[in-house]
Design a protein that fits this description.
Elements: H1 7-29, H2 33-61, H3 70-87, H4 90-141
Amino acid sequence: MARRKTFSECFFEAIIEVITYLPKQIREICEKPAGYLKLAQLLIILFALGGFILLLLYTLFFNNEFINPDIFMTVIVGLIGTIVGMFFSESAMHQIEQEKKELEQNVKTKEIDMKSTLRLLDELDRKQHKFEDIISQHLKKYPSKKK
């Protein structure tokens, strides 16, 4: 019978998975120049979200007097504004447009390569049929002598 894992073992395995997963994802994000922009945006968003969580936790646990919820609403609106501003920034849109052009160019190049490959395959097929016809004519003309 298999031994059940304890909570600490499961937690440790989860932490190891996260530690190995994050570098892979960061490498995948940063493969293209626009990836660095996306990574910077992600870090800024995480920093703003982390600041909000710290402010919320401080207010809940260490501040005994009641705080006006307007502070938290202001932080939330600022966080949303940061996310939207970063997502729709001009440089991000420019990078996306560049990547789209590169992708279209790659598709056109591959399409041209495929057409030329198909043309060559058709030509080889025609030559093979022509060669088979010549061989069959020679076999008819010069039958083999069996003993």
